[in-house]
Design brief:
With about 260 residues, the chain is of the alpha/beta class. The protein has 2 domains: about 5-200, 2-enoyl-CoA Hydratase, Chain A, domain 1 (Alpha-Beta Complex), CATH 3.90.226; about 200-250, Lyase 2-enoyl-coa Hydratase, Chain  A, domain 2, CATH 1.10.12.10. The chain is about 45% helix and about 15% strand. It has helices spanning about 30-45, 65-70, 75-80, 85-90, 110-115, 145-150, 155-160, 170-175, 185-200, 200-215, 220-235, 240-250, and strands at about 5-10, 15-20, 50-55, 60, 100, 105, 120-125, 125-130, 165, 180. Strands 1-2-3-5-7-10 form a 6-stranded mixed beta sheet, with helices on both faces. It has a 4-stranded mixed beta sheet with strand order 4-6-8-9. Helix 6 (about 145-150) packs across helix 7 (about 155-160) and helix 10 packs antiparallel against helix 11. It binds octanoyl-coenzyme A. Octanoyl-coenzyme A (CO8) binds near residues 25, 83, 84 and 131. Keywords: Fatty acid metabolism, Lipid metabolism, Lyase. It catalyses: a (3S)-3-hydroxyacyl-CoA = a (2E)-enoyl-CoA + H2O; a 4-saturated-(3S)-3-hydroxyacyl-CoA = a (3E)-enoyl-CoA + H2O. It is an enzyme of class 4 (lyase).
Length: about 260
């Protein structure tokens, strides 16, 4: 599929997807979301890629869903034509870790897309917000749920009810992002993290990601049971034998993803 609204490249073993619709601050229109889903699926299926980075420009990760594309849509058309469904949730179906590298605005659907990724690395100029309330709507791609789980009820409620944006420092204090890096280093730092992940055993990486994400969606008791099943299943892999033998023999492991 030819891409017009994203740039796709690999840097070493990391797949990098750059949202590239600068004239609209990377507003997430249908075409952009379709292209993003296509690129994510392609990287997920590529054995040479071990981790994926989604980023935008220095001014905007994404300023939300495309308001101009949405403004004349009506109910029940939006209900029947999978308005939010598959296109928006592709990132949740990806087995490899997906890092959101956020500089500038991550607003509305942009903030929701970042939160659907496995983790968010923020540039020092990042700004997060759910300003939908200013448009007479509410977040619609998981914002009311994921933001609460991430930063707690009061802060999420304030952002969603007032539309107030959070800067990178506040986002780090609130645990929305894993850490902050200078904007000029953002993509390099995200790729470095992706390279580290890609150098590890793919089955353990995929299962670690799956287990952490389950913590969002189930009870502690069920989550711990799920983790234990995955943990024990990894004893069937060659990489578990290699990783532990390498430790005992004081050498670096050589993983084969089997
Ligand atoms: N949609 C469409 N166009 C946009 C969007 C957007 N979300 N954001 C910016 N643009 C366009 C502007 O219209 C402008 O275009 P033009 O030059 O043709 O007028 C261009 O991008 C540059 O924007 P600004 O001139 O406004 O730039 P500023 O630096 O002055 O302001 C802001 C930057 C503060 C980010 C401002 O653009 C803004 O407030 N944008 C809208 C933010 C917003 O409300 N986001 C939430 C959208 S709703 C949403 O995301 C719901 C998600 C639901 C799930 C999925 C449903 C399918």
């Amino acid at each position: 599929m030819a891409h017009e609204m994203i740039l796709v490249e690999t840097q070493g073993r990391v797949g990098v997807i750059t949202l590239n619709r600068p004239q609209a601050l990377n507003a997430l229109c249908d075409q952009l979301m379709t292209e993003l889903g296509d690129a994510l699926r392609t990287f997920d299926a590529d054995p040479a890629v071990g981790a994926i980075v989604i980023t935008g420009s220095q001014k905007a990760f994404a300023a939300g869903a495309d308001i101009k594309e949405m403004k004349d849509r009506a109910y029940p058309g939006v209900y029947f034509d999978d308005f939010i469904g598959k296109r928006w949730e592709t990132v949740l179906t990806i087995q490899k870790p997906v890092i959101a590298a956020v500089a500038g605005f991550a607003l509305g659907g942009g903030c929701e897309l970042a939160m659907m990724c496995d983790l968010i690395l923020a540039a020092d100029n990042a700004k997060f917000g759910q300003p939908e309330i200013n448009l007479g709507i509410i977040p619609g791609a998981g914002g009311t749920q994921r933001l609460v789980r991430s930063i707690g009820k009061s802060k999420a409620m304030e952002m969603i009810l007032t539309g107030r944006m959070m800067d990178a420092q506040e986002a780090e204090r609130a645990n929305l992002v894993c850490r902050i890096v200078p904007v000029a280093d953002l993509v390099a730092e995200a790729v470095k993290m992706g390279e580290k992940i890609a150098s590890l055993s793919a089955p353990s990486v995929a299962m670690a990601k799956e287990a952490v994400n389950v913590a969002y969606e189930t009870t502690l008791r069920e989550g711990v049971r799920f983790e234990r099943r995955l943990f024990l299943s990894l004893f069937s892999t060659e990489d578990q034998k290699e990783g532990m033998a390498a430790f005992a023999e004081k050498r670096k492991p050589s993983f084969t993803n089997r």
